[in-house]
Model the fold of this input.
Amino acid sequence: MPTPSRQKRAPQADEEAFDSEVFDKENEMNGGAGSGSAGKRKQSPADDGDGDDDDHVQQQANADDNDDSPHSPPPPKHSKKKSKKSASFAAATSDSPMKDRHINPTGKPAEAGIIHEVYVENFMCHRKLSVKLCRNVNFIHGQNGSGKSAILAAIQVCLGAGARRTHRARNLKDLVRKEAGADCAGAKLRVTLLNKGADGYMPEIYGDYITVERIISLRSGGFNGYKLLDATGKERSRSKKDLDAMLDQLNIQVENPVAVLDQEEAKKFLTGKAEDKYEFFTKATELERLDRVYASITDNILEQKATRERALENIQGSIENTRQLKKEWEQFQELDKLEVEVQELRANYGWSVHGEFREQLQEEMKKAQKYAKALEKRRLEFTTAEQSVNVTDDQEMEVNKQLKELTDEANAAAADKLQLENDLKADQAPIKLKERERGLLSRELAQEKKKHASAIKRLDDARRHILESQGNVAEEERVRTRKIAQTENDLARAREQVEPLKEQVNEHLRKYQDIEPAMQQAKETMDGTERQLVGVQHKMNALQQESGGGMAALAVFGGKCKALYEAVQKAERAKKFQGPVAGPVGMYVKIVSGKEKYAKIAESAIGPGALDRFIVTNQSDLQLMNRLRREVGCGPRDCPLYRISPKSTKQKYNVPEPPPGVETITSVLNVENAMAFNFLVDHASIDTSALADSKESSESALLVRENNGKCSIKGGKIRKVFFLPNADYWEARMGNMMMVGNDRPMKQTIGVDRSAAMESIKHEIVALQKELARNKEEDKGVRDAAYKHKKDWNVANEQYKKLISRIKEMEVTLDRLKDEAETSEEAPTIDTTEYERDIQEADAAVQDLKRKEASVLQEIQSLQPTVEERKKLLDEVTSRNVKIMNEMEKLEERMEDIVKGQTRRMEQLDKLRAKVDQMQEAVKQQEQVVAEVKGKVNEALAGAQKMQFSYYRDARMFQLKEANGGELPPGEEVELEPTEEDLEGIEIVEVPNDSKYYKTKLQSKLKKIEQEKKRRNMSESDPAVARDKYFRAKKDLDSKMELINMIESNVAALTDDLKERRKRWRQFRGHIAEQTNLGFDEFLNKKGSAGEVVFDHENKTLDLVVQKSNMDEHTQTKDVKALSGGERSFATLSLLLAIGECLETPFRVMDEFDVFLDPVARKIAMDNLVKVAKTMDHRQFIFITPQDVSNLKTDPKLRIFKMKPPARNNTVGGPQQQTLDFGN
Done:
């Protein structure tokens, strides 16, 4: 047997639970009738519906003690086979799906479910007997007839088995001791079980011990059943269900032949066929019971399928009858629906008439307002003219006085101007003198320059004459002299250029330095303007995004809005529309600045499908818009259209102002386009929808509760009140306050109205752009000037440097030539000193004149500021004189009007008085017209409200009847005639068409109703009878279909479930078979043999292959009958123990397990049983044998009970059996 380290585990929780699901399904189909073996321990599913029967098939920890057995022959030949099987066994155990069972785990003494004591009274051959068993190994032996098997029968009967299961009697009364006599009331059995540890059954109630007491009564009326006693002996229950629950919790299986093996079962197993052994195997491992359950479920599935088919065939007539009755009932409903539509058309006709009168009233009121404004204007003109007539002499004197003052002021200004002009002339006189002096100096300078040039020319001519006159004195001297003359001439001219060029360089440098600060200032000014412009543009973009402006914002109203808008713009440019077109509506709608918190509820109150609409005014444009919608791919709900009256295109409706402290959609939104505004008033009632911060504040501001309990809205203008935070709203209808919740998510596609701020910023941007352009021009001009001065300075500086370099080179050349002349041979020369002196004198005169000219220029510049100041003062005085002259001219014109226009003003006053009287008469007549039209509007409103009430009444009755199967619900009342409050609560309905349209539709609908009534030929003339027939047939059909659907659903669920469980059952069977085969071989190894269990699951047979010697394969035999009695018994015992390894019951009982064993085989079997049982100290073993067990030694883990030999001639009251305790 395997060691504890190779522990076999129990099925997982899913293996434990899956049978319960099968039983639940089966109980549903069978109405609670379960199936199971007649002799099994657990109650059937019909008892408690609990099918958790896989708990009865467990795996126990085993130990392979073959090497430690002194009686086991050495198995050198078979050791390889054994090792291979052991490895396979270990692998199969570790991969087993049956794990984690917790009943008395290995390595821990048994705590729950083992038998502590067995007590019988008047049972079989015992008058009274008490046996206290050991927790681990117990041997009960004695002669035949000593009552050993009675202890086993007591355990079986007391723990739920029937009398037949004991193989001792047909009924329980036959088990009562016969020697007790006629006065015996019956038998009493008690089995006390240990109930400790985590797996105990309800330890908080029963304690550490549970006693099961079974009473077998022989008297009628006496108690015959079970009792459950706690550790103190107190009775806790008499329910068989509680007993089964306790046995299930502790995994006690008294009807399992492997858990409790009596004599008859042992004999049957020894002599049985292969089919009997397989049946024994499936019964012991619970496989047979599960297979029967699955077969029962399969039969149930087939039966339900047949039931469903029969039901479907039987209800065809009901289906056809219901269909015909429904058709008749729907015909009546169609007529009612047509009547409701007629009422709706009547109401729409009334509202269209009211709308037409209201439009006429608006037009007449506009005329009245226009006349009133014109009258006010005439009156103002008349008042002004009347005031102008009453001009007095004081006004004339005032005008004369002003003229005199202006004349005096003009004279003084003229004197000032004359004085300034004289002063200016005096200041300009020295400048003019200096200018003349400068002119003379300039002319003298020019003459001196000519003299200087003439002296140079004369010197050149003299030198050339000297050279020509000398002839051929010395060629070198001539050349040198010519070079010296040329060099001196060039040097003189170069020196003349030095000073002007130097002044030019300094002048360009000064100009560049003077303009550099202006260039930097221009650059800083331009950069500042650019930064300011960028900031303003960013602000403009932010406002555009906030207000939802731009073409990109059209996408928020729908994916096709932008494309349709562009198509509309293109068509408008092509002049394809006959009237104005607007849209989408949301494009013109903005939130008023400061009221952004109402944006979402305002949009929710407007409702979906309004902001993305396009508006037209005639049928032709409507058709064109539909064509454009198709071209851009609009769906049925994309960019819907609305046709508005042509009269509503230019001016917005004159909607009433909201009550003080109340916001409406019209006060929160700013709608630019008149068509869009009028559409929202007509379609979304934005003028009658109030907005509030909360429900409480809205009720406080608008809700009026009257003494009679009726509610209304203050002011009579508001119809619905929406409030934050979810756009829920309430309204007062027919005197009741109705609250309506909003389940649509709120969103905001309307932008904030920033038009004023954007317009201001646009002007600012234009001004900044102009300023930036001006700054750029100034910066460019300054930079160009700076670049020119810098370039000029660079050019002049370069010329100056080149000139200085050239002078130095010429001076060096001249010195060299002179040195060569002094060292050369003296040649005949002519004195040119006079010419050279002339040149020097001319050069000195030129320089002196230049200094004088510069001095004169400086004096002119010093006098210039005074002259400029005089000119500025003179300009101011001149400007003041012009202003005074203009004012005098105006006063003179006024004086002329005063003097000469009195008659003309009187005539004009008379004309204006006549116009005022005429306009007053026109206003009076228009007010009469308005009053007449108001009367028509009120009359049309009253008629429309009555028609609307009739429509509401008929529609409500139709809905109630339709929802309640054709009749009004019990207790539901509908008012037939409206009250004044009902009519006042009806809001004005805006209809899209005129009265002619609805009148035509109404006449057509009435004609259709008459035709339908004549056309239809119905079997029932009473709609109530048709309705009752239809609903009775429908109810009957629905109940049948519900049953059929339930059967179909159950069949599908059971089929899938059964398929999965069959699969798991086969896996479970294969695992148990493999475990049994491995265990059988290992137990035979204890005796030096080998074996194999051959399963044929198809034919349901179990054969044993036994090899007498594990070292000799020739001793192998497949015929167990060929074995000796002892060998067959040992093989059978090994198989039983192997099967028992797959169980996890807390105790196992084996009666006469050692029959036919020879002494050697018996000793080996006994030693191995004891050794294995002791290693499995978490299990209790009870072995019953008639053989002698004196060779066994008792210890704390082993107890031996010897039964007293029977007294063959006992009388009543004689010696009885007793318990013998050996050594513990």
Q: What stands out?
A: Residues 549-749 form one domain. The first strand starts at residue 112 and ends at 123. The two ends are 27 Å apart (CA to CA). Residues 393-470 form the longest helix (78 residues).
